Every structure is written in structure tokens, then in C-alpha cells.
Amino acid sequence: MSEPTAEFYLVLEGKRSTYKPKQANGLYPVESIRAVAIKANQPKTLGKDQIYMKIRVQVPGMAFDPIAPSALIVVPEDLIGKNIEVTLDALDPL
Description:
Blueprint: E1 5-16, E2 30-39, E3 50-58
Antiparallel strand pairs: 1-2, 1-3
């Protein structure tokens, strides 16, 4: 059985540098990009300096299983009724 997949479109926008000379196509070079949207369907229109990429992600089904962490916290009688803070580092084994 194949793993579950999801498809979506990532819309990226380029920021052009006006400090560098124009390229052969007459445009300033793109110096950085940023993600501006994620769409379920192919975008019909794009803004200036925007492109889209079709992305397909495959994730094992077990990644969506509910996580049910458990811990046993023993509170001594002399601390009953007081505020107790418990912190567990995710990297520490139980």
C-alpha cells in the first residue's frame, strides 16, 4: 500500500535588487524569495514577480497516529495544595 500524499501549490514572490545592473532580459536580478501563499488548486492569476510550484508531499500514515504521552508524577503529601511545575525534556527517556 502506498503512503498518503497531498498536493498543493506554493506561491513564491521574488524581491528584485535595484542595486545590481539589469539582466539581459531587462529586469533586475532577484535577490531573495518568500512564500506568499499555499493553494489547494492551481492559481489562476499571479502578482508581479510571483511564480508557483506544484508540491507533492508523501507522509507515512503512522505520523498521524494520536500521540498519547504518559507520565507518573508523585506528589508528596507536604506539597498537596501548592502549585507544582513539572517540565519534561522531549529528549529525555521516560
